[in-house]
Amino acid sequence: MATLKDATAIVGTGQTRFARQLPESEKTLACRAVLAALDDAGIAPSEVDGLASYTMEETDEVELAKSIGAGDLTFFSKAGFGGGGSCATVAHLAAAIATGQASVGVAWRSRKRGSGPRPWKNTTAQLPTPAQWTRPFGLLRPADEIGMLARRYMHEYGATRDHLFNVALACRNRANQNPAAMMYDRPLTRDMYMNARWISDPLCLFDNCLETDGALACVIVSAERALDCRQKPVYVHSVAQGLPAQHHGMVNYWNDDPLTGPAWTAARQLWKQADFGPDDVDVAQIYDAFTPLIPLSLEGYGFCGRGEGAAFTEGGALESGGRLPINTGGGGLSEAYVHGFNLITEGVKQLRGTSTAQVPGAATCLVTAGEGVPTSALLLRS
Amino acid sequence: MSENTSGGLLVPVVDDDGAPFWTYAAQGELRVQACAAPDCGELRFPPRPCCPHCHSFDSEWRRMSGKGRIWSYVLPHPPLLPAYAAQAPYNAVVVELSDAPRIRLVGNVVAAPGAALDSVDPARLRVGAKVQVAFAEGADGLTVPQWLLERS
Questions:
Q1: How many domains does one find in chain B?
Q2: Of B84, B104, B122, the CB nearest to A253
Q3: Active site residue: A54, A235, A301, A337, which one?
Q4: Helices A161-175 & A293-300 angle (0-180, nearest 10)
Q5: Does B1 fall in a domain?
Q6: Can you give the pLDDT at residue A1?
Q7: Which of the two residues, B101 and B66, has the higher pLDDT score?
Q8: Average per-residue pLDDT in chain B?
Q9: In B, which residues are within 8 Å of A151 by CB distance?
């Protein structure tokens, strides 16, 4: 059977500034990030023949390709389910390039979440199945939907707000080292966390990701071509998507086991194709729209057993020098919430050795997309 | 606000699959869709056209006792849509039905049928607390299930 293992590499990354409000349009921000990524790789825009994005992207392939002066496109793909699709963009391009459908692929994300209306403002347009069974009862926002899982998780396994604080703190501490992060100069303390206003009890302000404007992109080519690029290649070792049987996006309350989400499905596929396992992961970038997604993902991706994700966060395990440093740019909680694409570029930085919170000698990195929705994940290696 | 609201609160959009649920609710009955194939009978929620177990397109609506337990709950605080913000913090719960394990309904625990979403002190809510269904008719005419805490 053909394999994608190390057949392609990420050779360029680019990003704009991250801020609560940027003056430029999403299309302009997307172009800036894509051109920066191609420049980083040393590849001309006219060589781009593959594009991949994920849903809730405002600029489509036609507009982006025209704007940057791409060549003839022979592959384009849009993965579903918002933040669950971030890693799928790289997975789709890797598959396309490995099978000869394209030679230079670009994946990108551009968001103006900081400037635009909150998604739940459009709730009335989203009431058909399954939202008609949840939103009328005041379960309006993603924070409410995930808060419901979080309360149950805390009840079943003795997880506490201190465990969620461990997650928020690890991300904030890394952001405090990253000048590009929105929370660069804003330390978090336990007092601040415990006294913060509620968003949806049991989730407080600091359990929620940022609202950010910004764009990012990365460039993928074959492993062979990667050797001729400007930067040290970061190989796409294993890829996976996951949509479990009987899953319900965000409101997985009707599954037999609501606390084993898409991460579990993606993980099985991811590890099946990999030459190494969770114990060999040097650093992880785990999708953190909300703090409870971290313990749930730690379990799903096999870093600990079922119900052990909260305890895993104790003793500085997620911090630099800990057992599994996570979200070393600050993540969605403290660097930028751009539907997780910054987790991909941060993974690349770690394996290039250029992160602002560099894990010494990092050679393997797990990157995940949104848990709680149909998801995707990547194993990267240097 | 749009036509999907009742006093600013969102109103369920009744679709073909779910219509019987709301019809029975208007009669004060909590019913869950079940496969009508002779050898199957699996319950499913939310409603859908065919049985994920046996793929039969025949279904029936089985009456439930209306007893359940709180599986989990949240207390949303603003920012929220205005009509919800006016009642915040309120509760939103997931209730696991006593006689249909793993059939779970999102709803609200209230002090009495038709009472406000914030009519019960959140301190009284516990995962595992016993609840009993009640029905309330909204300004739009649609009857929705609500949940009353049982004295235990």
A1: 1
A2: B104
A3: A337
A4: 90
A5: no
A6: 65
A7: B66
A8: 93
A9: 72-74, 127
pLDDT of A128-141, one tens digit each? Answer: 678 899 999 999 99
Residue B152: per-residue pLDDT? 61
Q: Which tokens in the block code for residue A199?
A: 């968003």
Give mean pLDDT, residues A57-67: 94
Interface probe for A, chosen from B94, B110, B140 (most Cβ of A below 10 Å), is B94
Choose the closest CB to A127 out of B13, B17, B122. B13
How close, in Å, is residue A66 to chain B by CA atoms? 38
Angle, helix A142-157 to helix A293-300, in steps of 10 degrees: 60
Higher per-residue confidence, A177 vs A127: A177
Say if the Cβ atoms of B11 and A152 lie within 8 Å: no
Question: For residue A113, what pLDDT band results from cuts at 50, 70 and 90?
Answer: confident
Dist. CA A180–CA A146, nearest whole Å: 28
Q: How far apart are the first and last CA of chain A?
A: 24
Alpha helix ranges (H) inside B1-149:
19-26, 82-85
| CATH among 3.40.910.10, 3.30.450.20, 3.40.47.10, 3.40.50.2300 for A8-114+209-381 | 3.40.47.10
| Mean pLDDT calculated for residue range A316-335 | 98
Choose among A83, A20, A137, A126: nearest CA to A293: A83
ipTM rounded to 2 decimals: 0.95
Beta carbons of B106 and A202 less than 8 Å apart: no
Instruction: Supply the DSSP string of A86-123, one letter for each residue.
Output: HHHHHHHHHHHHHTTS-SSEEEEEEEETTTS--GGGGG
- By Cβ distance, the residue of A118, A128, A149 closest to B15 is A128
Q: Does residue A50 carry a pLDDT above 60?
A: yes
Domain spans in chain A, listed from the N-terminal domain onward: 8-114+209-381
What is the share, in percent, of chain A residues with pLDDT greater than 90? 92
Residue ranges of chain B whose CB lies within 8 Å of a chain A CB: 1-2, 4-5, 9-15, 17-18, 45-46, 52, 71-77, 79-81, 84, 87, 89-90, 92, 94, 102-108, 117, 122, 127-128, 144
What pLDDT was estimated at residue A80? 92
Q: How many Å apart are CA A326 and CA A319, to the nearest integer? A: 7
Q: Rounded to whole angstroms, how far apart are CA atoms B55 and B58?
A: 9
Domain span at B104: 8-149
Q: Look up the pTM and report it.
A: 0.96
Pair A107, A217: CB distance under 8 Å: yes
Instruction: With beta carbons under 8 A apart, name residues in chain A contacting B71.
Output: 152, 253
The verdict on whether A287 is a catalytic residue reads: yes
User: Given this model, what pLDDT does residue A121 score?
Assistant: 66
Q: Which two tokens stand for residue B3?
A: 């036509």
Q: Which two tokens stand for residue B9?
A: 């609160």
B86 assigned to some structural domain: yes
The shortest CB-CB distance from A139 to any of B46, B104, B106 is to B106
